[in-house]
Structure formats: C-alpha cells, structure tokens
C-alpha cells in the first residue's frame, strides 16, 4: 500500500471520528438544552402573560438578556410556521413554533398575544456547526500540507525508477533541509560518484 493511500485512509478515518464526535455532542447537548429551554420558555411565557395583563409592565430588557426577539408581524410567521408543542397554562396558552430554521414562542391570552423568536437557538446550532466546519477544514488543510510536503518523495521515487532503467543522467538535488531533501542530495552524490567511476573505467579501457 502506497504512503499516499495510507494518508488518505488516516484522514478519512479522522473525519469520520470528528463527525461521530460532533454527532455525540449534538445529541448530548440537545438533551441538556431541551431541559433548560423548557424552563426558560415557561418563565418567559409567564412574564409575557403578565406584561399583556399589565400594560405598564416592560419586559424588553428581560427579553434582550434572555435572547428573545419580539416579532411584530405575527401573521406572516404563523402562516408558514408549524406547531412543535403547545401547552395550556394559567390564563393562557403557550405554543412552540418552527419557521424554517427559527424557533418561536407564541403566548396567547384573553388580553392579547405575543410572538417571540428564540435567537439563542439560532446561535447555538450555528456555534456547533461552525466548530464542526472548522475541524473539517483543519483536517483538510493538514492533509493538503502533508501531501504537498511528500511530493518531493514521489518525484524522487520516479527519478530512482529512471536510474534503475539505466539513466544515470538524472539529478536529484534538492534545496529542502528536511529528511527527504537530505536523501535526495545523498542519492544525487552517489549517482555522481557512480557516473565518475564509469567514466574513469571507460577512459582506462581505452
């Protein structure tokens, strides 16, 4: 098995493991978030009901601190949203809606209704996806760097094959200071000595 094939296998396995890790993080984090989100939604729903009952109550600062955005154009969201969950609470009803990739908290009461978009949910999945994407990009960049650094070795292999066919005019000098460059230069020195010995022998035979 060639070294390039081995490297590809290693990086494919690394990407698979990275993907499996983020799937595990997604599932584990989702279970924790669902519990915390439920408490957060219920607390927000009760405050929303109180604010609709008492018009002087202002919960804007609370909404900002807890990553909720009040939606004014309710009808346009409700037209395409799907109900994920709903529950009746004291003097009202709470619905959790999904519209595209966003989650909304809908609070109904006899005093009115309020629609809130959960911006924390949007950011949360963005962070996880961003971390996964960065990990994959890092592995791809590492793979490209490694294969590029091994390119001189592939060239040296081709040159050695040419020498094996009897072509001693090949030169394998390298300006690189790594191990591959040292091997190439050592091999080139050996070729020059062999070429010199052959030339001396031919002169002697004359």
Highlighted features:
6 helices; 2 domains; alpha+beta; about 210 residues
Q: Termini separation (Å)?
A: 47 Å
How is the main sheet built?
Answer: 5 strands, antiparallel
Low-confidence stretches: none
Q: Which class best fits the helix and strand makeup?
A: alpha+beta
Description:
The protein is an alpha+beta fold and 206 residues long. It folds into 2 domains: 3-126, no CATH class; 152-205. Helices cover 66% and strands 17% of the residues. It contains 6 helices and 5 strands, in the order ααβαββββααα. It has helices at residues 3-53, 60-65, 74-80, 119-149, 151-164, 179-205; strands spanning 68-71, 82-89, 92-99, 102-109, 112-118. The chain has a 5-stranded antiparallel sheet with strand order 1-5-4-3-2, sandwiched between helices. Strand 3 (92-99) and strand 4 form a beta hairpin. The protein is rod-shaped and about 115 Å long. The mean pLDDT is 83.
Short description:
The protein has 206 residues and is α+β, with helices and mostly antiparallel strands. 66% of the residues lie in helices and 17% in strands.
């Amino acid at each position: 098995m060639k070294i390039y094939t081995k490297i590809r296998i290693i990086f494919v396995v690394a990407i698979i493991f990275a993907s499996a890790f983020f799937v595990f993080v997604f599932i584990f984090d989702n279970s924790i978030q669902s519990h915390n989100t439920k408490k957060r939604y219920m607390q927000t729903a009760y405050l929303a009901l109180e604010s609709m009952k008492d018009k002087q109550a202002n919960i804007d600062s609370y909404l900002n601190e807890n990553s909720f955005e009040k939606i004014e154009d309710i009808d346009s969201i409700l037209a395409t949203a799907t109900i994920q969950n709903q529950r009746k609470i004291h003097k009202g009803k709470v619905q959790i809606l999904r519209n595209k990739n966003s989650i909304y908290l809908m609070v109904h009461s006899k005093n009115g209704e309020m629609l809130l978009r959960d911006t924390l949910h949007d950011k949360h999945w963005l962070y996880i996806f961003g971390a996964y994407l960065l990990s994959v990009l890092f592995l791809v960049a590492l793979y490209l760097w490694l294969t590029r650094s091994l390119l001189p070795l592939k060239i040296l292999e081709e040159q050695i094959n040419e020498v094996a066919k009897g072509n001693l005019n090949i030169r394998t000098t390298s300006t690189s200071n790594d191990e591959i460059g040292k091997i190439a230069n050592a091999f080139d020195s050996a070729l020059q000595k062999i070429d010199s010995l052959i030339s001396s022998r031919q002169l002697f035979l004359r």
